[in-house]
Structure prediction request, 315 residues.
Amino acid sequence: MEETESGNARIADARTRETVEPAEGQGEHGSGRRLGSGGEGADNPRKADTPLTWDPAKYQAYADLRDRPFFDLTARVGAEAPRRVVDLGCGSGHLTAALAGRWPDAEVIGLDSSPEMIEQARGLDGAPGNLRFDLAAIEDWMPDAATDVVVSNAALQWVPGHTELLSTWAAALAPGAWLAFQIPGNFDAPSHALMRALADSERWRPKLDGVLRHADAVAPLSDYLDLLLSAGWEADAWATAYQQVLQGEDPVLEWVRGTGFRPVMQALDAADLAEFEASYSAALRAAYPRRAWGTLFPFRRLFVVGHKPEQRRDT
Prediction:
């Protein structure tokens, strides 16, 4: 059990780890955030071209907990002197800045499709000189010959068909490149199941039908491992269940307001949203009871790190 301080609230964070081991002989090792692109859970195929509005301050409300998976992921990337590092779905940019600090001689680029996030990122205080941010969607990006590291943290679940993108990137990246991504693996958790069930109720289905995406937002962890190993990469894949302790009133609702609940927030008017939230928050309080020390909110995340060998391994 580790303890960190977050503002005036103490957050305890423990985790369990389940690992899909690399195959024998293998070494270790703008976002597309739109309605209709999935999420920590959401999809609306009727509004696939409608950008999803993001609130950087709301997303960063639990920065200590949201940031930890990024560092758990990138710690497994073994690149020593990459030429270009790309962070796909960079959000507010502070984690991309950490990549620029780690590799000061690399060109580090953060991409996100949210104008709000990119505006926040471009205003970072003390940003390294080797860092820049571009407004762009993940599905429109392709690596070039100088791209040596690609990182994506909690973004690919917003991109339908991202497994095909991963296959394309794996083929296009140069030998020696690294590809690392983290996505949520908690679509069957009460926080998401309750939201979907309420949205599918007789009261809300006419207004929210198709707004929330289901478990198909991500593939099974083993599929990502198979994708990279079959492409001749060395790969490591694992799942971590973070045992997050949140503080405050309705903390799970506050958490999802920063991520997977945003499509509902955008689809409903103020009066309807207040009514939906009243029912949803009551269900969340029952599923995640508040205790003297806080509210336990387990969150499972999937991690994949791949390294493209200088020469393709024999099959």
Summary: Residues 150 and 179 are 5 Å apart (CA to CA).
